[in-house]
UniProtKB/TrEMBL annotation:
It comes from Deinococcus gobiensis (strain DSM 21396 / JCM 16679 / CGMCC 1.7299 / I-0). It comes from the Bacteria. InterPro entries: MnmA-like (IPR004506), MnmA-like_C (IPR046885), MnmA-like_central (IPR046884), MnmA-like_central_sf (IPR023382), Rossmann-like_a/b/a_fold (IPR014729). This is tRNA-specific 2-thiouridylase MnmA. The keyword tRNA-binding applies. The gene is trmU. Catalyzes the 2-thiolation of uridine at the wobble position (U34) of tRNA, leading to the formation of s(2)U34.
Length: 380
């Protein structure tokens, strides 16, 4: 990998100004390409960089749409078009330790992980921010659809991007609070069509590049990948209300809360949903729709982007990326986690996913959803 000479670590200024040095994370996609171009136009000293995640023995159909050798080539070409230096930084070991390993560990625990949250938290907005400061860059810039807002006290806040279809604040709740002043989001106030239009006007080769959709390191379907990596173990499917055995399964890792298809129950005419996974006893518990309704949640591993004392008692919480936030009341919160009560029960809140907290458009933080403590049938 190309090495970059180190420069003094610099503190952030209250507001970014032209002329300052910025490390721009480039993935080979249109959003980060336009980010680099906009920063250059605004007079920043831009250094383009891509984080290498793919291993030497990269499998077919993995790391293809982003973070791939081809994407690295495209990112370097865009950097040449924009007129900024470009470096490929080796983060393979960190990616395996922080992303791939925990992804499989969570499935083994009967939970549903979101590796993109971990990637942003542990790698992009922790490791990369540290690297930028080592290289003498005051800021890191990315192509996320997030708004950087300075409040009346001069503190940096993250707000939802102006394009509601592309807002990515959900993935950034774990950003270390002390890193917020160092991060820029040049496309946060744009909508996707505008970004593509800018790329086309500038002749950037990524202007028409399609979106990346899948988990980058997973070839094909997630279930198939998990089946390859984790041992299958036949177990029982039980009815949550009675403890009755109503089917068999090949492993709790193949199920998620709320699932009703592909259960293979003995009484196939009855609609049942997965309501609880217990890897310790290798049991999948099913029940009615009502058994999947959560009146609240407990989150662990919390991260707050404001002082805990300022956390509002009433707020919005988003429990999946593609769902609308709902109103909730904070019943307990400390540095480790928090508990919420929903205004309206929510269906199939999945342990391992993120509970992300908002006050209107402002991102307040979040945590990982913990499982319910259920009263299982005594004769189970």
């Amino acid at each position: 990998m190309t090495t970059v000479p180190a420069a003094p670590i610099l503190p952030p200024s209250p507001s970014p100004v032209a002329g300052e040095r910025v490390l721009c994370a480039m993935s080979g996609g249109v959003d980060s390409s336009v980010t680099a171009a906009l920063l250059k136009d605004q007079g920043y000293q831009v250094v383009g960089a891509m984080m290498r995640f793919w291993p030497d023995d990269k499998r077919v159909d993995t790391f293809d749409s982003c973070c791939s050798p081809d994407a690295a080539y495209e990112a370097r070409r865009v950097a040449e078009q924009v007129g900024v230096p470009f470096y490929l930084l080796d983060y393979r070991e960190q990616f395996q330790r922080h992303i791939v390993g925990p992804f499989l560990d969570e499935y083994a625990r009967g939970r549903t992980p979101n590796p993109c949250v971990n990637c942003n938290t542990k790698v992009k907005f922790d490791e990369l921010v540290k690297k930028a400061r080592m290289l003498g860059c005051r800021y890191v810039a990315t192509g996320h659809y997030v708004k950087r807002v300075e409040n009346a006290r001069g503190e940096v806040e993250f707000w939802r991007g102006d394009d509601p279809r592309k807002d990515q604040t959900y993935f950034l709740w774990g950003t270390p609070r002390d890193a917020l002043p160092y991060i820029l989001f040049p496309v946060g106030e744009l909508e996707k069509p505008q970004v593509r239009e800018i790329a086309a006007e500038k002749g950037l080769l990524t202007a028409r590049k399609p979106e990346s959709q899948n988990i980058c390191f997973v070839p094909g379907k997630v279930q198939d990948y998990v089946a390859e990596q984790l041992p299958q173990a036949t177990g029982q499917i039980r009815e949550i209300a009675t403890g009755e055995v109503v089917g068999e399964h090949l492993g709790t890792q193949f199920y998620t809360l709320g699932q009703k298809k592909g259960l293979g129950l003995f009484q196939s005419h009855r609609v049942r949903h997965v309501v609880h996974l217990d890897p310790a006893t290798n049991t999948v518990w099913v029940g009615d729709y009502a058994d999947c309704l959560w009146t609240g949640l407990r989150a662990e591993g919390a991260n707050y982007l404001l002082d805990l004392a300022e956390l509002p008692r009433e707020l919005d919480v988003q429990v999946r990326y593609r769902t609308a936030p709902v109103r909730a009341r904070v019943t307990q919160a400390d540095e480790h986690g928090f508990s919420l009560e929903f205004d309206e029960p929510q269906f199939a809140v999945a342990p391992g996913q993120s509970a992300v907290l908002y006050a209107g458009p402002r991102l307040l933080g979040g945590g990982l959803i913990a499982d319910h403590v259920r009263d299982l049938p005594a004769h189970a």
